[in-house]
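Weekly structure sync, notes
Attendees: PL (lead), two postdocs, one rotation student
Agenda item 3: pending single-chain targets
PL asked that the sequence for the first pending target be pasted directly into the notes so everyone works from the same version. It is reproduced below exactly as submitted, 256 residues in total.
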Amino acid sequence: MDSPSAAPEFVRGYSDHELHSRIGSIIRERSENKKDIRSVVSDAIPWKRIKKVLDLGCGYGWFEEVMPGGLDLIIGIDCLKENEAPFLEKAAAKSREAGFRVMLLPAYTGLLAQSFDLVLSLYSLYFFPETLREIGRLLRAGGLFVSITHSKSMLEEGQHYFDFRNLRKVIERFSAENGGDLLRRHFTQVDHIDYRNSLVFHAGDEKKLAMYIDFKKEFIEKDADPNVVRDKMVSELHRKGEIRLNKNDRIFLARK
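Predicted structure, written out during the meeting:
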């Protein structure tokens, strides 16, 4: 297993649970699409046939918060040790058995083949798309793999002022636009659900916009100084009176 210190810098911010909660509140408040994307995902999962779940890049248990109860097993894999306690707390509330492994993906997990009814990778697969083969090994026949990913146009509004080429390279490893083709190499059936959304900030929302941009700093900093990006976007909000940020995501559902 890899130690938490092996985690790439761009995921270190994912261990700040209080910040995640605050950003989540901003996203819900500023979203045009008022339906929680977790509800959209949960509604698409045939929970009556699900007993054993594996969550890759599970974080602190963001999706476990909305899972139904009565499961037999939930295992989370994440590169941040700090996420273990909050994840296990949430998973244990929904399952008779819960486990957590500190591991930097892509890697061979060592878990038994065909042992999971459902594998999840929610807002994480662009960090380790090479794990798709291992996911296929772990799913039972008829099992379901679910992933949420961004459009490659994420933060496109900021690209009017900055060249986010390294950000695009990360997202394009598994994006809304190319994810289906990548999944079809490993799965026999691939469907998707588009989640159309924009974050809309108005005059008076400067602090919230600044916080949201700061939250993305690990994505941004390889292309530009995050402080410069934040200040520019806040300045544009003050000048225009409204800023709309692309938040279009795609939910992929793949079966063996």
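Discussion points:
- The chain is about 30% helix and 25% strand.
- The CA atoms of residues 76 and 203 lie 40 Å apart.
Action: rotation student to compare against the earlier draft before next sync.
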